[in-house]
Design brief:
There is one protein chain. The chain has 481 residues and is α/β, with parallel strands linked by helices. The protein has 14 helices and 13 strands. The protein has helices at 3-13, 17-51, 59-66, 86-94, 114-122, 161-172, 191-200, 235-258, 273-278, 289-303, 326-346, 357-390, 396-425, 431-464, and strands at 73-79, 101-108, 124-126, 140-146, 152-157, 177-181, 185-187, 206-215, 220-222, 225-228, 268-272, 309-320, 479-480. It starts with a helix and ends with a strand.
Length: 481
């Protein structure tokens, strides 16, 4: 060790061994606490899937059970600059197996050829639909109906972002249930049947049902259907495949079982329309409208002392295109973080209050740990702990503890989610695909996870600077079959 190294050691030692130890322990404890929650989620989801009855094998069985009793549903699909994928997505939605549904495509002021594609592909003609409530704030420019598919309606409106587009659809939808999805998503044909079935057997308490979102990048798509499931070629969407398995087959299943489900993905969710109308629809002043509306729904029902329920059905599968570039991923993850912070602050009055049950006592504190405390401390740990170890200021045992908690434990959780995929959902078509995802689950923790933590810091910065613009995520479109 040379003189400069000794000087650095002296400078850092001025912090005091106790201070260095304290900072390291705080980081390790916080990361360890988060991983303990992940472990409990994995155990809960594993137990839930183990005792869960096997899903109905065919859409025909579901149709037979529901044909005479199903609730009418309106599908709301906001679209903004979706010319690359809009025709496939609309065909996918029109092909859903469901006895009674309407499809509303809400064009939210697209500046590309989205409307032109819709006119060309679906023979639109002007029509009128009555609204029994007005939840949107921007002007509706026109309403169209397809001559070739009478159940397809297109609402052309001024741009107001996704929340306003959904509210516009809610204003015109008059069915008991609404399905909120993205215009760049593809729901599997039996998805709506599986989502509506819990409402049929419910006593009126059920207000929302969520499903699993899967990555369609690289898969073979034709006429709005995923014909062949393939593992994405690029590492960025491949990492997200593992992330989504962990989020939906572990975290969401566990949250549903704990009655702490605070997020029904904006890509797919079925809601009781009357409840959404009662709470005023989606908020326009947040970039995380899907999270905020669910927390507000919980708050409303608790304030009204109303018995209610939210559930998650893992057999529902909705395919979506994930960001394929670092820039697109950064914009998406920063927006998610910003939306989480907005929701926490807006509903901070629920935190730690028994009147809000497990949402106030468990779900929101967990959200604070994951979205407020963990990101900066985890990034600090990735920088500070290796530096201190390299300078000889940190015991090897502490450095290895952080490594085990942040990397090895992440690999374990990802592999657990992959086992759930194989045993329960089985959308990975081959042993080679599973092996590829297993390797991805390992590599993901050696850079990608750390990058995501950095992107969340960017989201925090944007929130503090009150930047509410919608950062675009570039789309390449689905691969034709």
């Amino acid at each position: 060790m040379n003189t400069d190294d000794l000087l650095r050691l002296d400078q850092l030692s001025g912090l005091g061994p106790a201070a260095i130890l304290l900072v390291t322990l705080v980081i390790t404890v916080v990361v360890g606490s988060q991983n303990l929650i992940y472990l409990l989620q994995l155990a809960t989801s594993s137990f839930t899937l183990w005792r869960r009855p096997a899903a109905t094998g065919t859409a025909l069985d579901l149709w037979t059970r529901q044909a005479d009793y199903s609730y009418p549903v309106t599908i709301l699909a906001p679209a903004f600059n979706e010319e690359l994928s809009i025709s496939d997505s609309v065909r996918s939605l029109l092909a859903l197996n469901y006895p009674d549904f309407r499809l509303f495509i809400i064009n939210d002021g697209s500046t590309d050829n989205t409307m032109a594609v819709l006119h060309r592909e679906f023979a639109l003609e002007p029509t009128t639909v009555d609204a029994d409530v007005v939840l949107h704030v921007t002007k509706t420019l026109g309403m169209y109906r397809s001559r070739s598919n009478p159940g397809l309606f297109v609402i052309d409106k001024e741009n107001g972002r996704k929340a306003d587009a959904i509210n516009c659809g809610l204003s015109y939808a008059q069915t008991p249930l609404v399905c909120v999805t993205d215009a760049d998503s593809m729901i599997e044909p039996d998805g709506l049947l599986r989502a509506a079935e819990p409402f049929m057997t419910d006593d009126g308490a059920l207000v929302a049902v969520g499903g699993a979102i899967r990555i369609a990048n690289g898969s073979q798509v034709a006429n709005g259907q995923v014909l062949t499931v393939r593992i994405p070629r690029g590492w960025i969407p491949r990492f997200q495949t593992i992330e989504y398995l962990r989020a939906f087959l572990v975290a969401r299943i566990a949250a549903s079982g704990w009655s702490t489900l605070t997020l029904v993905s904006g890509a797919f969710g079925v809601f009781r329309r009357s409840t959404l109308v009662e709470i005023g629809g989606y908020r326009h002043d947040t970039v995380g409208e899907d999270l905020e509306v669910m927390v507000r729904l919980h708050r409303f029902c608790r304030d009204q002392k109303r018995r209610y329920r939210v559930t998650f059905v893992p057999e529902i599968v909705c395919w979506t295109e994930a960001p394929a570039t670092i820039g697109g991923l950064r914009n998406q993850r920063a927006r998610w973080e910003q939306g989480a912070l907005e929701t926490i602050i807006r509903h901070r009055g629920m935190i730690g209050r028994r009147r809000y049950g497990r949402i106030g006592m468990v779900a929101l504190p967990m959200m604070i740990l994951e979205d407020v405390i963990c990101p900066p401390l985890e990034v600090l740990g990735y920088i500070l702990i290796p530096t201190l170890y390299a300078l000889g200021l940190l015991a090897p045992a502490l450095a290895l503890s952080f490594l085990a908690l942040s990397v090895l434990f992440g690999i374990f959780l990802s592999l657990g989610a992959l086992i759930h995929e194989e045993l329960q959902v089985r959308r990975t078509p081959s042993a080679k695909g599973l092996a590829t995802l297993a390797v991805t689950a390992i590599v993901e923790n050696l850079g990608y996870r750390q990058l995501n933590s950095a992107f969340r810091i960017i989201g925090m910065y944007r929130h503090l600077r009150k930047r509410t613009g919608w950062a675009a995520v570039p789309r390449a479109g689905f691969q034709a079959g």
